User: What shape does this take?
Amino acid sequence: MRGATIAKVAQHAGVGVGTVSRVLNGSPAVSEPTRRRVLDSIAALDYRPNPVARALSTGRTMAVGVVAPFFTQPSVVERMRGASHALAGAGYQLVVFDVERPEQARERLGSRALGGRMDGVLFVSLAPTDAEATQLEAAHVPVVLIDRTHPRLPCITIDDAQGGRMAARHLLALGHRRLAFVGDLEDNGFGFESSARRREGFEEELAAAGISIAPSLRIQRPHGRAPAREAALPMLSAADPPTAVFASSDVQAIGVMEAAQAAGLTVPEELSVIGFDNVEAAEYTGLTTVAQPLEESGALGAELLLRALGGEAVAGRRMPLEIVDRGSTGPVRVDRDGALGTRAVQC
Amino acid sequence: MRGATIAKVAQHAGVGVGTVSRVLNGSPAVSEPTRRRVLDSIAALDYRPNPVARALSTGRTMAVGVVAPFFTQPSVVERMRGASHALAGAGYQLVVFDVERPEQARERLGSRALGGRMDGVLFVSLAPTDAEATQLEAAHVPVVLIDRTHPRLPCITIDDAQGGRMAARHLLALGHRRLAFVGDLEDNGFGFESSARRREGFEEELAAAGISIAPSLRIQRPHGRAPAREAALPMLSAADPPTAVFASSDVQAIGVMEAAQAAGLTVPEELSVIGFDNVEAAEYTGLTTVAQPLEESGALGAELLLRALGGEAVAGRRMPLEIVDRGSTGPVRVDRDGALGTRAVQC
DNA sequence: CTGAAAGCGCTTACAG
DNA sequence: CTGAAAGCGCTTACAG
Assistant: This one.
């Protein structure tokens, strides 16, 4: 006995199933006495409508899929926080599709995972292929992207290049001239482009100041704290380390700070480090960063999706950036001769 | 046209829908030629079975709910990582039910959220009420708890009191005698008991050594970094601060380390800090902690649930604990007179 | 205002 | 091996 059905309730109340359905759905076309009687029967039988049957009948599942690299990118979790609240408030269930490896994207999305089961889909830091987008459109499943773009889909983005420029200006204003960059591999299987755009903006602004990054100071590794740390350590231990590092994510910036500690460089006195994103860890590691509104982007993405679900045509939005200074960057050290300080000449 | 249906495929292949269903479900009772023909039609029409219809027909939704305080407890995310992989591998969708406030637990669980829509439920750091448990049992929905207990349900737990004892022994062995505790409010709306059990084990072991915690050094606050930091600051700034602090979670331990920095105490020289859980942040803040296997507990919980879903009777498990020493604890300082060092007598 | 019936898209005995 | 039919539990025109 897996619970009462609408038929049992109808029988108990002495009405037709249609009438029970009407009171369930708040139809005004039910007389008050009947309504009461049905409500009483519902309570008496502890009846709860079967959402699966309802979904089959209405064509709406009341579930939204969220496709994201949940466990490799801490920023995703913060975005989820915003989305989860909005979705739950609107009565939607949130189904997670974790994508950790590029191949998974292919397996999961196009096929059974999304088809027919989700009323809408939120892509976070990931984008559907063109074929998938077409298919989703054909099925009339609204889609919103966060932190990625697509020509035909509403996207919530930031200006990554602009963020890179902001980081450059921040470090230049502190007098730094010997700068390093630590970011993602630019040819990754997910098509992540943020790191490349951030680097481009950064280098562009440096170029305007007549500065370029020495090839040995441009590090690109798979995303993650450990790879960043391991790649930064030799660079920071060398005879001529940079005086400042821009990492294209907080995760990597934290790796750089760990490398600095291992190399015996104090932050920010001997090395300035600035990250990007403003994830929670940036707060308790005291990292200065180019902050983007993570939770807000998730909330906004969910809101847009809800409106699209309601039949509205929605447009994407670009979110603002700001530098949050927590003290991991500082003025470049200058020794008595006025030369730019490096570890080699200090002490 | 929301995609082809089984009827269209049957028509296209010139067979009955039952036959199409049989090839879909790998029934051996289909001749090879028919099978090929049906497969061709499926491909030609780009047909994908509607999971909602299938769910209604079979009574299995192929979805599992995870009920947890996702965004207030970082440990939950690490547990999810383990669970997500196992569930996805078995073809189950993962539906998240975030519970941030005590009242939400009531609204969401018992009612529409879980009823009829989930094949199984994983509770993380949260437990169903007795009424909910009964209801889930009546509906034959298997349940597994992680980090909580219930008399009739399989639970994956740790020995919290034992962990508290381990922390105590660790600090006692380093010579600490003036000890503080920072943990959760013990009367919280969620029924979290870990913090209380950890404190009890800690105090028990101290008592065996003839030591007790001064009331002013026993801090209990809502879970979180900021409340821990704010409550610890005055304690650490006082004339007679403790030489070591046991926090019943890493999150709170990080708050204590922030307070130590604000109070001008160096860790571990002037203050030893040990946490509990071993979340990722413990790694990059260099926190010594009583480590529990978070990801493994999630994976194990998912496995048990899958086995229960397969009809097996499953039993819970107790996970092992170990101290991971990252250098935030050290020997107590002793001044020249041999008295136990405190900030007041040093220098 | 209300009931009977068709329909949502599958699966699965039941006959053949 | 295969088809026709009933059934899963709802919703929603359609008549009255």
Summary: Confidence is low (pLDDT under 50) at residues 336-347 of chain A. The longest helix of chain A spans residues 74-89. Chain A has 13 helices and twelve strands. The two ends of chain A are 81 Å apart (CA to CA).
